[in-house]
Design brief:
The chain is of the alpha/beta class. The protein has one domain (2-192): Flavodoxin domain (Rossmann fold), CATH 3.40.50. Helix content is 43%, strand content 16%. The chain contains seven helices and six strands, in the order E-H-E-H-H-E-E-H-E-H-E-H-H. The longest helix has 26 residues, at 167-192. It is globular. Bound molecules: flavin mononucleotide (FMN).
C-alpha cells in the first residue's frame, strides 16, 4: 500500500517537507510505502472552469496537476501539506487542489473515493487551524475518510531546523502516520473479508432551485 504526500510549499525541502518526512519515516516503519510529490515553483493557474476535463479527463493546463492525477490513481491514501500563507493554504496549493479535485469530479475519475486523507500545515506562528480546515474541505466533499492525530496536524517554524525542535508537532506527525497505516490495513482486511463498498446513489444536483 502506498500513501502520496503532497508538498504544497515553494520550498522543496522546507518546513512542510520536514513534517511530511516524519510521516513518511513512520509509514515505512508500519510497512506502508510513500512518496513525497512536490508541486514545484512554476506558476500554477487556478481553475478557469473551462470544463475541458469533462471531455479529456485531464486539466487543460498540462502541469503538475496532470502529473499528480496520473500517479494519484494508484495511491491508497493522501496527505496534503502546506505552509501557512496569510492564514490560509499557499496560493499554489489552493490552485493545485482546486484543479485536482475538480478534474477528478468532472471527469468521473473518482480516484479519491473512500481513500483516507489528512492535511498537514506548517506555520511560523498563526493561521494553522484555518488552513487545516480549508484543506480538509476537499476531503469531506469527496467521500474521503479523514485521518486524525492527537492534535491538529501542524508544525511550527520558519526553517526546517525549527521544525526539528518542535517535538509535539513531530509527534503529531508520527501519530497521524500510524493512524493512517492502521486505517489502510483495516480497509484492506475488510475488503478481503468481503465487506462491500456502500451502494452509490445518482448525484442530486439542485443549486437550491426548488421548482
Ligand atoms: C507569503 C507568505 C505568507 C506567510 N504567512 C504566514 C502566516 O500567515 N502565518 C504564519 O505563521 N507564517 C506565515 N508565513 C511563514 C510560513 O508559513 C512558515 O515559515 C512555514 O513554516 C514555511 O514552510 P515551508 O518551509 O514549507 O515553506 C508566511 C510565509 C510566506 C512566504
Amino acid at each position: 500500500m502506498k500513501v502520496l504526500l503532497v508538498n504544497g510549499s515553494p520550498h522543496k525541502k522546507g518546513c512542510t517537507w520536514t513534517a511530511l518526512s516524519e510521516v513518511a519515516k513512520t509509514l515505512k516503519k508500519e510497512g506502508i510505502e510513500s512518496e513525497i510529490f512536490w508541486i514545484g515553483i512554476k506558476p500554477l493557474a487556478g481553475c478557469t472552469a473551462c470544463r475541458t476535463c469533462v471531455k479529456t479527463g485531464r486539466c487543460m493546463f498540462d502541469d503538475t496537476v496532470n502529473e499528480f492525477l496520473d500517479i494519484a490513481k494508484d495511491a491508497d491514501g493522501y496527505i496534503f501539506g502546506s505552509p501557512v500563507h496569510y492564514a490560509a493554504a499557499s496560493g499554489a496549493l489552493t490552485s493545485f487542489m482546486d484543479r485536482v479535485f475538480y478534474t477528478d469530479m468532472l471527469a468521473g475519475r473518482q480516484i479519491f473515493y473512500l481513500k483516507p486523507a489528512a492535511a498537514v500545515v506548517s506555520a511560523r506562528r498563526a493561521g494553522t487551524t484555518a488552513t487545516f480546515d480549508q484543506i480538509n474541505k476537499y476531503f469531506t466533499i469527496s467521500e474521503m475518510p479523514v485521518i486524525s492525530s492527537r492534535y491538529w496536524n501542524m508544525v511550527h517554524g520558519a526553517q526546517p531546523a525549527d521544525v526539528e525542535k518542535d517535538e509535539e508537532g513531530l509527534q503529531t506527525m508520527r501519530v497521524l502516520a500510524r493512524n493512517m497505516a492502521f486505517f489502510l490495513k483495516c480497509k484492506e482486511a475488510g475488503l478481503k473479508a468481503g465487506v462491500q463498498l456502500p451502494v452509490r446513489e445518482e448525484r442530486v444536483f439542485t443549486n437550491f432551485i426548488r421548482d
